[in-house]
Amino acid sequence: MTKKKDSMTQKNEAISTLSPKELLKKLPGREYLQGRDELRMPYAKLIRLLHDAFGSDGWKHEVVDVSSLHKTKNDDGTYEASYSICSSLTIHGVGTQQTVGTGFASKQQTQNEAIQMAMTSARSHALSQVACLFGDLTGNCLHDKETVEYLKTLPKPPKRKFDESMVFHHPST
Questions:
Q1: pLDDT tens string 45-80
Q2: What 3-state class would DSSP assign to 5?
Q3: H/E stretch holding 54
Q4: What sign results for the dihedral spanned by CA atoms 62, 65, 69, 72?
Q5: Secretion signal: which residues (predicted)?
Q6: Contacts 24+ apart (CB under 8 A), 32-38
Q7: Minimal CA–CA distance to 32: which of 16, 55, 48, 51?
Q8: Beta strands 59-73; 79-91: pairing state
Q9: All domains of the chain in start order, with CATH
Q10: Burial degree of 43 (CB within 10 A; 0-12, 13-18, 19+)
Q11: What is the pTM of this model?
């Protein structure tokens, strides 16, 4: 256990010596990627990568504008909606980028469900798109076939093990 902590400490110290621009040239590890044939970086893993690489105060994501593209009630009584979201991502020490993401939801029981699902999808898409603009670490490398083939050869990290000590409980319980 001590060796692992020492190794992790050394790894974190090595990362902290890199500038944000140098970090963005690195490739993401398999723990941040999902998929077998086609690798992608899901929203939650992108957030974790940003926290791990730059710290919780080293980056900022903002929704700049939200636009409804369409909202429809279908003949079968279900709803669909489509939204676009313009978002901005700032990585301190590097700069700010801005782009648009789109989201669509169909066959929802209520109009609110369709709107919520479409907006969530658009927000995730916008963050993924704007993150790619910064470099390989934040997803741009996933557009290069040779890099993707290399990343597929990397071993997948072991599945995360959960136990009761990891659960946060309200102090009154």
A1: 999 999 999 999 999 999 999 999 999 999 999 999
A2: helix
A3: helix 43-54
A4: positive
A5: none
A6: 33/142, 33/151, 36/152, 38/148
A7: 48
A8: antiparallel
A9: 29-156 (3.30.390.80)
A10: middle
A11: 0.84
Residue at token pair 């790894």: 11
Q: How far is CA 72 from CA 24, 68, 85, 107, 116, in A?
A: 41, 11, 19, 10, 14
Amino acid (one-letter) located at 133: L
Is 156:32 a contact under the CB 8 Å cutoff?
Answer: no
Residue 79 is given by DSSP the state E
CB-neighbour burial class of residue 114 (10 A; exposed 0-12, middle 13-18, buried 19+): buried
Structure tokens at 91: 């990585």
3-state secondary structure of 11: helix
Identify the CA nearest to 95 among candidates 19, 173, 42. 19
The C-alpha atoms of residue 66 and residue 94 are separated, in whole angstroms, by: 26
Spatial CA neighbour of 141 closest among 54, 16, 24:
24
Nearest to 84 by CA among 62, 100, 71: 100
